[in-house]
């Protein structure tokens, strides 16, 4: 989550010098190459199972959600709105959307706390959007559009979190992460091709390239691998709870390195979204009093995940 949070700031630097399609392709193209090299070394050492076209296709399709679709919206949003907005909207609303989808599909229970939390999450998002100001004045149409695109990114990440759970059943996290990242990166490269001639490659500074390298290694190769590894052991809604840490890192880095800020109304909207997300995902357990009972019944147990074929896989 520390890597994911910093990605908003670092990616904003890159989209300031290249089209957002090219920025996404550079980040995930580099990340995919790193993961392929790691996978090749692990496979040669016999630490993971054998190649399977079925696994490759399944993980690749999920990668089109979590890598391609999500990052199309992510980098598009960065080209329109401050990174600090995305670091609030995406990680806070993703758990709300994930929980709502699981309730609709009947995979988790609908308690009063969850319903209230979902309503608060939506209300907080409305307040956040209404608080968008252009230098403290009126509403900025460009920033409003960017925040709406961030919302689409949150929806894509929620879908990715839910579908990834099944993909991880019986597949090593490294292999699943690599296949998904490669598939998503290929889609991003194809999308970026028409914009490549518009880039002044010789004019890109060392700082821009340093951010590209950092994005490929940290927020992509390492962060996605960690997310897959954790998702193998917990439910999708539980996995998204840790995303509440993203705004802390995202807001801090955006404030320090980009000198970005948001309005007081947006702060209120962000707090409402956060409370709603906590209620929806935890069913009010964070309100438990010492020695007391929770406000809602515990969630239904998440379905067990099959153990990897290679018991020695890490």
TrEMBL record:
Name of the featured protein: EamA domain-containing protein
Signal peptide extent: none
UniProtKB keywords: Membrane, Transmembrane, Transmembrane helix
Top-level taxon of origin: Bacteria
Transmembrane segment boundaries: 24-44, 56-76, 88-106, 113-132, 144-162, 174-196, 208-227, 239-258, 264-281
Keyword tRNA-binding among record annotations: no
InterPro entries per UniProt: AA-Vitamin_Transporters, EamA_dom, EmrE-like
Listed GO CC annotations: membrane
A Pfam short name: EamA
UniProt subcellular location: Membrane
Membrane topology (UniProt): Multi-pass membrane protein
Annotated EamA domain residues: 2-129, 145-281
Alphabetical list of PANTHER family matching this protein: EAMA DOMAIN-CONTAINING PROTEIN (PTHR32322:SF2), INNER MEMBRANE TRANSPORTER (PTHR32322)
Similarity comment text for this entry: Belongs to the EamA transporter family.
